[in-house]
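Session log. Operator J.P. requested a structure for one protein chain; no other inputs attached. Running the standard single-chain path with token output.
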Amino acid sequence: MDHLGNLQQLFQLGQQMQSRLSDLNDRLEKETLSATSGGGMVEVSADGRGNVRRVKLDPAVVDPSDIEMLEDLILAAVSEVQRRARETMEKEMKNAAGGLPLSSLAGLLGG
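Structure written below.
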């Protein structure tokens, strides 16, 4: 009968974690992060999951004779905003797991 109680606790932990992850996913999709390059001439915004939502260019950076520079600036801003999104997601994942007695998981599984 002790194993049945452990399975029920494990199931409850799983439900709590699933709920927290669902909430986290919703928050990350609503969050907006931004990064710039070229002294602010290129700005890229993304959600908390790193999905690019907007690219804003200062007209001064649009030079038909130097498309390569513009491409580099866009790439730099996209890379930075996605790095920030990864950091935000990792931080939020740690917070979502906080408070759950995950360290007792091994005990529930008999380990």
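Operator note: The two ends are 17 Å apart (CA to CA).
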